[in-house]
Amino acid sequence: MSRSDVPTSAPLDDLFADAIERAAVSVVSVHARTRLPATGTVWRAENGASGGIVVTASHTVEREEEITVGIGGGTPIPATLLGRDFNTDLAVLQIDETPGSPIDERVAPSRVGNLVFAIYASLILFDILLTVFVLAALLCYITFSKSGGMRLALLAGLFLGLGLLTKGPVVLLHAGWAVVSYPLWRDRQADIAPGRFFAGVGLSLVAMLVVGLAWLVPTIAQMGSDFAYSLVWKQAAGRVTGTLKAAHARPFYFYLLLFPLLFIPWIFSPHLWRSRPLALWREKASEADRSALLLLVPWALGVLLSFSLISGKQPHYLVPILPAVVLVTACFTTKVPPAAIRIGAVLTVAALCIGQGIAWKTAFRRYDLTPLAEFVRQRQDVPWAFSGDYQAQITFLARLTKPLDVIDDAGEAEWSALHPDGYVIERFGKLPEGAELEFSIPVEKGYLSVQSARSLLPKAP
After folding, report:
1. How distant, in Å, are the alpha carbons of 29, 268, 296, 432, 446 from that of 67?
2. Which CATH superfamily is domain 3-95 in?
3. pLDDT tens digits for range 387-426
4. Sequence spans of domains, the chain
5. For the whole model, what pTM was predicted?
6. What is the DSSP string of 41-98?
7. Is the dihedral of CA 114, 117, 120, 123 positive or negative?
8. What are all long-range contacts of 259-262, with beta carbons under 8 Å and residues at least 24 apart?
């Protein structure tokens, strides 16, 4: 070969790196003796990267059963001894035709088929947006642990800040457990030292505060310190202690009862339990897989236990740990046929769609406030009040440009006297007899009814 035949546009180390990368996929580890594994060569590839014929040294094959082959550091794959030649010291192995698929092949169908994801992915809730920012921050932290680049730490802080604006300080609870468990899941040969990692975490927290203050400072200047106190302290402390009126206080074990639902429908799969997932994981998991599990389990369980200690609880508060649950599911279903997972995902989504269709025609009608909102919208030029606890649902649905006055039962007469041409919306457990109602619809717990202000004024003797 002449000098002109050698590419000059690429550095020599790039040429070596490319050659090594191409050769690496053909070199496997063969586990067939009690000592260290031997090496082998993929002679003929079948079934993609995992299947095929492997040739190795005959003297390294000390047993004819329980032989496994490791490809690329992944989960060892069972292999069968086809034959050997002692004169040439060669042995031929057949990699099983149906090896456990890589974990990443199972993530997508496991996510789509997860019952909780299928329910909440279509709902307009801040928890889905919070999940995006938590996941983005953790991906930045994981990448930062490999490279040590502080720009990644700042980027993680940006995502934490956006999560802070989305749903408050709870973003730290969702991301914190995965971060503090770094000494457990880090690769001691390749990842940065814990000291540098947590220094980057500190920098990201500063970036998060900058993002939060960029919103909070102008808000305080516009709305006043009372608003800031109510939002920043009263809301957070009230939900933790359960003293906030809408804190949804529930017992400690509430989330412990709900946690198994995060694994539906996969916990009902006969393929899963026949494969003995826990035993298989202990025997076959690679170091990379074990490291991933040491990240995912503290993340999910830490958030679960932390929220259990908080008085205010709602099922959708656990949505941000769904990525961890889905990845754990994928880790333990490596022996479940991919087709079975896909079928399970399709059946879950189909059942949910059918259930929602039935509920839309029955139970969901009691949650549809659109008719009432349309009634209000057509009369929005007159004064309106809501008697009782109000969360601005009608204001949003009717696209009103001014808020409803919120009053209580004792203030109805006074408000009606000041606004005789107005209307009052009130919730009733059952419709009152003899009441002069302008409009009424059934809702979750009774009825929402509209009364004219004049009908609420004391009657003249």
Report:
1. 11, 31, 30, 78, 67
2. Trypsin-like serine proteases (2.40.10.10)
3. 988 888 899 999 998 889 999 888 898 999 999 999 999 9
4. 3-95, 104-355, 367-456
5. 0.67
6. EEEEEETTTTEEEEEEEGGG---SSSEEEEETTS--EEEEEEEEETTTTEEEEEE-SS
7. negative
8. 259/304, 259/318, 261/115, 261/116, 262/114, 262/116, 262/318, 262/321, 262/322, 262/325
